[in-house]
Design the sequence.
């Protein structure tokens, strides 16, 4: 998603740094697997099992926010390709 103030790379970089330095320690273990949508300017975030619900709540707070999304406890929000059933 394009943002008028930040590139996608800048949103990703700033979002990951903010998550690692401030937000991660606030998240309970029971949230693993849920989606987190983080406003990179304010540090506010929303968590939900449904990514669109979390995104809509974050946009309700500030419609033009620069938002970074991640899946808590996972290296990526989504997985592409074949996955082994043994995992």
Sequence:
């Amino acid at each position: 998603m394009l943002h008028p103030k930040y590139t996608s790379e800048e949103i990703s970089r700033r979002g990951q740094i903010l998550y690692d330095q401030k937000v991660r320690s606030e998240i309970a273990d029971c949230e693993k697997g849920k989606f987190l949508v983080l406003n990179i300017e304010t540090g506010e975030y929303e968590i939900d099992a449904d990514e669109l619900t979390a995104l809509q709540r974050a946009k309700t707070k500030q419609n033009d926010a620069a938002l970074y999304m991640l899946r808590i406890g996972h290296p990526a929000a989504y997985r592409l390709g074949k996955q082994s059933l043994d995992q």
